């Protein structure tokens, strides 16, 4: 890991920012990684901090867009019911990894206040149960030389803690872990040596060519597993 850096958001009241670094594999292109925690809501004052979150996310995505391959992940404190859509620039190659891999937003909640040690209580404030689930943690990516392979939740196991004669069963976090796997995208196969490159492209498109002739469909079937 190289070129590590930390940046603080200019509109944060709680010291939020993001960290970034380059991962340099031996046999694959450089991939830039970053993690952040955006401004969270304050249930006691009923401040959602939605605009602060949006501007922080927008700034981080814009700053990280200079990299060809970048993965940004973390606790975005995002609530899809009240916040604006996550600011991914149109046409910029950015995707939400969860939805890009075919997962539904409804199945993606990573935060549930009921998982807290003190059931729905936050400094004396009791939240409504309907407000406790949201897809707070997420990965957003811009990948040119890599592809998304899979994304999954990792449940955090409860553990017991002795306190005098009492045994407390605590959750280590009110968040689920999210694990994203990416892999280097395969290179396009080279054209056959016995025909021009243009003819190979024509065969890929399923168009009969003089060079391909009757072998066009056979070539398509042979290469089908590569895509």
From TrEMBL:
Residues 186-227 are annotated as: Disordered. This is Endonuclease/exonuclease/phosphatase domain-containing protein. Keywords: Hydrolase. InterPro entries: Endo/exonu/phosph_ase_sf (IPR036691), TDP2-like (IPR051547). One of its GO terms (molecular function) is single-stranded DNA binding. GO terms for biological process: double-strand break repair. GO terms for cellular component: cytoplasm.
């Amino acid at each position: 890991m190289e070129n590590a850096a930390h940046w603080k958001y200019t509109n944060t009241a709680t010291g939020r920012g993001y960290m970034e670094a380059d991962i340099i594999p031996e046999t694959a292109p450089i991939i830039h990684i970053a993690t952040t925690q955006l401004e969270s809501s304050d249930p006691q004052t009923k401040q959602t901090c939605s605009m602060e979150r949006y501007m922080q996310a927008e700034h981080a995505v814009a700053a990280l867009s200079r990299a060809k391959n970048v993965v940004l992940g973390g606790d975005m404190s995002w609530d899809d019911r009240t916040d604006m859509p996550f600011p991914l620039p149109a046409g910029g190659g950015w995707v939400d990894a969860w939805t890009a891999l075919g997962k539904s937003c409804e199945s993606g909640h990573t935060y549930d206040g009921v998982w807290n040690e003190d059931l729905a209580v936050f400094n004396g404030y009791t939240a409504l149960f309907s407000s406790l689930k949201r897809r707070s943690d997420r990965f957003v990516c811009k990948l040119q030389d890599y592809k998304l392979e899979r994304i999954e939740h990792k449940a955090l196991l409860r553990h017991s803690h002795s306190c005098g004669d009492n045994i407390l069963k605590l959750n280590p976090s009110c968040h689920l872990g999210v694990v994203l796997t990416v892999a280097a995208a395969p290179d396009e196969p080279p054209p056959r040596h016995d025909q021009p490159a243009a003819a190979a492209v024509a065969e890929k498109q399923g168009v009969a060519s003089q060079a391909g002739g009757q072998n066009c469909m056979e070539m398509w079937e042979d290469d089908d597993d590569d895509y």
